[in-house]
Hints:
binds 1,3-dihydroxyacetonephosphate; TIM Barrel; alpha/beta; 250 residues; 8-stranded parallel beta barrel
Amino acid sequence: xxxxxxxxxxxxxxxxxxxxxxxxxxxxxxxxxxxxxxxxxxxxxxxxxxxxxxxxxxxxxxxxxxxxxxxxxxxxxxxxxxxxxxxxxxxxxxxxxxxxxxxxxxxxxxxxxxxxxxxxxxxxxxxxxxxxxxxxxxxxxxxxxxxxxxxxxxxxxxxxxxxxxxxxxxxxxxxxxxxxxxxxxxxxxxxxxxxxxxxxxxxxxxxxxxxxxxxxxxxxxxxxxxxxxxxxxxxxxxxxxxxxxxxxxx
Length: 250
Ligand code: 13P
């Protein structure tokens, strides 16, 4: 089995205006000077910046993804964006099922699975997010929660090319807290087992990202854990120096 090429993806969430296009350009410039064969890199800006970044003349190998999509291709869905519209912007991926969407918009595993399928229909790679809350971890339910989210939100047809899994413990997001190396190893190992049993060789080579307060100071340690194939970075992806430093830690 070929080695898995890691992915460092930045999720800008609801941050960024046109003045931040220069930050994207700085990240692109730094990344394109490195050996881009070593790790893939991506920025997921808000929709308002998607076309500008995905068509940026200096993007080079730096990919661009969206943060959510609707299930339908077109129609009467005011305020929503379809996967086909994301492809039309020249973006190549979409995050689905982020815990902030699960919490803010009541998104279910079933809906997230439909969004993943819709994103494949448009030729996008789906970054499917899962992760337990603090309460669920305290109750000792982490592995069962992650298992039911994975089973419920990753549809049949997932391959190493069209799907990336992001494990993001909710209590570690934006809090400065990170899961311990032992906890990350345990959860990622469990996710790998489940992926292999559902998707065989594709599951064995599917990327599993860790997310939750990944920063310069902890990236190298986290990225060295078994079955961690990159990171989904929130806050630190807004600062080019930090994001590039995380990329260099791979
Ligand atoms: P932070 O890196 O800001 O904790 O965010 C993680 C995240 O939610 C990425 O999707």
